[in-house]
């Protein structure tokens, strides 16, 4: 049964606050059920405000059952300002003092192909597997202004249907390598949440929602988890053309 839900907030601040509330509600639910919560974090700039608020609001004890992964990484060392892991470490993981066994970094400093293989094996070991793909409890996704998500870009859309859990891609403008989970992992997740803000994304979001324009070229268009649990957290600017 499809449970696609869209949440639209007046501005980025209320979007961030609402997503933080939803995270804490979900964490409470998993804790009450005595379950671990395996989450793949999105990269880029949008989640930084969420990470900061979570670090301010969260009580570390409650995080003892949380395992954090990344949906994608830039192939740079953690000290690089481009590092998704490095940025999350600074504003969330270090302030929370999470145990290192709960943090599953994509090692951007390693050779991309080998690291994609290593990380794929790790996901297959750490998570339940269905139809050959590891199953996350929750995947957070961003959206690029070109319709990319995780690090699967329109120019290499064939990577979406890769048979392996993790692939090597590259940024179409900089050609800098990236490591990303594949479409099979994204659509195997129990729950997927897009978080997007800003007017520059409104056209892409309209095209994806209404199957308009060049939607077939956008990797984000193919996000359709088998669980049916897909959410869009948007601010009014990003939802401006809906
Ligand atoms: C990354 C991402 C990527 C990101 C989008 C949106 O590592 O870049 O995971 O998919 O979510 O590019 O980026 P912004 O949030 O910065 O707009």
Features:
globular, alpha/beta, single chain, 242 residues, 6 helices, six-stranded parallel sheet, three-stranded antiparallel sheet, binds 6-phosphogluconic acid
Provide a brief overview of the structure.
31% of the residues lie in helices and 19% in strands.
Helix content: 25-40%
* Ions and ligands: 6-phosphogluconic acid
Radius of gyration: 17 Å
Low-pLDDT residue intervals, each spanning 5 or more residues? none
Alpha plus pi helix count: 6
Strand content: 15-25%
General shape: globular
- Which structural category fits the helices and strands? alpha/beta
Write the element-wise H/E pattern from the N-terminal end onward. Answer: EHEHEEHHEEEEEHEHE
Please provide the count of β strands. Answer: 11
Largest sheet: 6 strands, parallel
Commentary on this structure:
The protein has 242 residues and is an alpha/beta fold. It has helices at residues 12-32, 46-57, 84-96, 112-126, 183-186, 202-210, and strands at 5-9, 37-41, 66-70, 72-74, 129-130, 133-134, 138-141, 166-170, 177-181, 192-196, 230-235. Helix 1 (12-32) crosses helix 2 (46-57) and helix 2 packs parallel to helix 3 (84-96). The longest helix is centred in the first third of the chain and has 21 residues, at 12-32. The two termini are 23 Å apart. The model has no long low-confidence stretch (mean pLDDT 96).
């Amino acid at each position: 049964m499809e449970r696609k839900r869209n949440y639209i907030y007046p501005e980025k601040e209320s979007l961030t606050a609402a997503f933080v509330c939803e995270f804490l509600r979900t964490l409470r639910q998993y804790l009450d059920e005595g379950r671990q919560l395996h989450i793949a974090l999105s990269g880029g700039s949008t989640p930084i405000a969420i990470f900061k608020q979570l670090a301010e609001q969260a009580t570390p004890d409650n995080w003892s059952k949380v395992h954090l992964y990344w949906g994608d990484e830039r192939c740079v060392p953690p000290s690089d300002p481009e590092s998704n892991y490095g940025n999350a470490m600074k504003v969330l993981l270090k302030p929370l003092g999470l145990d290192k066994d709960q943090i599953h970094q994509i090692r951007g400093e390693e050779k991309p192909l080998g690291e994609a293989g290593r990380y794929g094996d790790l996901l297959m070991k750490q998570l339940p597997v269905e139809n050959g793909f590891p199953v996350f409890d929750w995947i957070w996704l961003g959206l690029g202004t070109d319709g990319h998500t995780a690090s699967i870009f329109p120019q290499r859309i064939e990577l979406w249907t890769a048979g392996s859990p993790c692939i090597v891609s590259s940024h179409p403008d900089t050609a800098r390598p990236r490591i990303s989970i594949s479409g099979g992992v994204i659509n195997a997740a129990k729950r997927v949440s897009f978080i997007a803000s800003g007017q520059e994304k409104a056209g892409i979001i309209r095209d994806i929602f209404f199957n308009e324009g060049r939607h077939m070229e956008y990797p984000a268009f193919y996000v359709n988890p088998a669980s049916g649990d897909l959410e869009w957290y948007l601010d009014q600017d990003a939802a401006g053309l809906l």
